[in-house]
Amino acid sequence: MRTHTTAVSARMLYQLAQEKVFKPVKYFSIDRVFRNETLDATHLAEFHQVEGVIADYDLTLGDLIGVLYQFFRKLGITKLNFKPAYNPYTEPSMEIFCYHEGLEKWIEVGNSGVFRPEMLLPMGLPEKVNVIAWGLSLERPTMIKYGYNNIRDLVGPKVNLQMVNDNGICRLDKWQQIECFVITS
């Protein structure tokens, strides 16, 4: 069990650094993570983390904010706020909040930042290469997009299976398990 997927991105960046010629990359993953949290309308102990990592020359915090705005815009979510935060792997770092109309409040949907140089240096990436990264909850943006006021309605017996079946980013597989996909253009 793990609380985040940062170890996966670090391994991918190390493999990238081992290549003879650096080429800019974008890595994305969706994986299950676990937290020791009290269940409530916006918290689950088990959820899916959507992680993104982009490595390229001279990336900045502005690039990260632009990517996140674009990502959420494609989901139909346009009300975003960013708050400075501390993360052990990134600096600067920021939490990402989306506005939930039904709850009439801002909900944290993820964390993000620019990888620290001391994290990248041992990997052997070229000097001017920066890495921007984020880890987002899949369930919280889903509840905002579809107007659910309680995140627990997305799991267990209360799941609206017709919504899952009709939705472009989620569907039921032949074993009636939910598969989720991120749509990019």
TrEMBL record:
Coiled-coil annotated spans: none
What CDD domains does its record include? Answer: PheRS_alpha_core
What general EC class does the enzyme of this chain belong to? ligase
The residues covered by the Aminoacyl-transfer RNA synthetases class-II family profile domain are 1-157
Keyword list (alphabetical) reads:
Aminoacyl-tRNA synthetase, ATP-binding, Ligase, Nucleotide-binding, Protein biosynthesis
Q: Which domain of life is it from?
A: Bacteria
Its Enzyme Commission number(s) read 6.1.1.20
- From the Swiss-Prot or TrEMBL record, give the protein name: phenylalanine--tRNA ligase
Q: Which gene encodes it?
A: pheS
